[in-house]
Every structure is written in structure tokens, then in C-alpha cells.
Amino acid sequence: MTHKVLEVKVLDPRFGDEWPMPAYATEHSAGLDLRAALEAPLVLEAGDTALIPSGLAIHLADPTLCAVILPRSGLGHRHGIVLGNGTGLIDADYQGPLMISTWNRGREAFTISPGDRIAQLVVLPIVRATLQVVDTFEESARGSGGFGHTGVR
Ligand SMILES: O=c1ccn([C@H]2C[C@H](O)[C@@H](COP(=O)(O)OP(=O)(O)OP(=O)(O)O)O2)c(=O)[nH]1
Ligand SMILES: [Mg+2]
């Protein structure tokens, strides 16, 4: 585990007052929970997506880092509240408001209240790739097998 100081702008004044700043919940938690910086409760109908502000902006600045926004497992599994973009990717040079695309993939409406922790932010290391065009690859044991070619058992 590496540690990094991350610049954050508080865009919603309820942070530090009504809402604690995002913090790691346990000693080895990987994610910082993000809150729904809503003005009023939002009823997300089954199948609907809403772009919800987190009330924060971050600037990773370090090009060896990115951040991802991931669903919270309890909300995703139990209530179908996941992300409209699958996973949110935050570039190191992004300085705008951190937005959470929230998708109700479930069969019932779900109400999100202001301040609810609806997703989590994970800071990750990045490897930048240079694409080198070749005609053949040195053959691996897998070769081009994929999509379940190793079977189930
Ligand atoms: O869930 C997300 C995903 C992205 N972003 C911000 C940070 C990211 O750096 C920027 C652009 O995201 P991405 O590259 O995934 O979107 P795009 O559709 O390719 O937009 P762009 O053309 O601005 O790169 O939007 C969020 O706030 N939340
Ligand atoms: Mg992009």
C-alpha cells in the first residue's frame, strides 16, 4: 500500500458540517465512499440513470495515478444500484466535479437521500502503454483462447 496526499476541493458546503469528508472505513479499506450531494431525495425508478454530483473535485495531478468510481457491493447486490458507465475512470488531469453516474438496474424504484454514500473511489497506479505494431506474437500457452475456453470445472 502506498500513501498519497490528494488535493480535494469541497464544492458542497455540507461537507465538514453535516457530512464527514470521505474517509477509509477500516484500516485496510481500498475505497473512499462518495456521497450523493443532492438537494432533495431522488427517486431512481427501475432502469433509470442519474448523474449525481459528489460535491467534491479532486486533482490527482500525478500521471502515474488514476482513480476509479466503483459501486458499493451492498447497494449493487441488494438494491441494483450500480453505475451507468460500468466503472467511472478519473484521469489524473481532471479537475472538474466528481460525478457519479447512478443506475438502478433493479426492478424496483430506489430512493437516494442527500448525503447517502452511493459509490466508492479507489486510487490506482497507472502504466502508460506505447503501442508497438507487430505481425506475430511470441506464442503463449493460452494463445488466442478466451471467453471460457478453459471450461467451468
Ligand atoms: O464516473 C465518472 C467518469 C468520469 N468522470 C470525469 C473524470 C474523467 O477524467 C472525465 C472524463 O471521463 P472519460 O474519459 O471516462 O469520459 P469521456 O466520455 O471519454 O469524456 P472526455 O471526452 O472528456 O474524456 O470525466 C467523472 O466525474 N465520473
Ligand atoms: Mg475520455
UniProtKB/TrEMBL annotation:
<feature type="binding site">
    <location>
        <begin position="89"/>
        <end position="91"/>
    </location>
    <ligand>
        <name>substrate</name>
    </ligand>
</feature>
<dbReference type="Pfam" id="PF00692">
    <property type="entry name" value="dUTPase"/>
</dbReference>
<feature type="domain" description="dUTPase-like">
    <location>
        <begin position="18"/>
        <end position="151"/>
    </location>
</feature>
<keyword id="KW-0479">Metal-binding</keyword>
<dbReference type="GO" id="GO:0006226">
    <property type="term" value="P:dUMP biosynthetic process"/>
</dbReference>
<comment type="pathway">
    <text>Pyrimidine metabolism; dUMP biosynthesis; dUMP from dCTP (dUTP route): step 2/2.</text>
</comment>
<keyword id="KW-0546">Nucleotide metabolism</keyword>
<dbReference type="GO" id="GO:0000287">
    <property type="term" value="F:magnesium ion binding"/>
</dbReference>
<dbReference type="InterPro" id="IPR029054">
    <property type="entry name" value="dUTPase-like"/>
</dbReference>
<comment type="function">
    <text>This enzyme is involved in nucleotide metabolism: it produces dUMP, the immediate precursor of thymidine nucleotides and it decreases the intracellular concentration of dUTP so that uracil cannot be incorporated into DNA.</text>
</comment>
<keyword id="KW-0378">Hydrolase</keyword>
<feature type="binding site">
    <location>
        <position position="85"/>
    </location>
    <ligand>
        <name>substrate</name>
    </ligand>
</feature>
<dbReference type="InterPro" id="IPR008181">
    <property type="entry name" value="dUTPase"/>
</dbReference>
<dbReference type="InterPro" id="IPR033704">
    <property type="entry name" value="dUTPase_trimeric"/>
</dbReference>
<dbReference type="InterPro" id="IPR036157">
    <property type="entry name" value="dUTPase-like_sf"/>
</dbReference>
<feature type="binding site">
    <location>
        <begin position="72"/>
        <end position="74"/>
    </location>
    <ligand>
        <name>substrate</name>
    </ligand>
</feature>
<keyword id="KW-0460">Magnesium</keyword>
<dbReference type="GO" id="GO:0046081">
    <property type="term" value="P:dUTP catabolic process"/>
</dbReference>
<dbReference type="GO" id="GO:0004170">
    <property type="term" value="F:dUTP diphosphatase activity"/>
</dbReference>
<protein>
    <recommendedName>
        <fullName>Deoxyuridine 5'-triphosphate nucleotidohydrolase</fullName>
        <ecNumber>3.6.1.23</ecNumber>
    </recommendedName>
</protein>
<comment type="similarity">
    <text>Belongs to the dUTPase family.</text>
</comment>
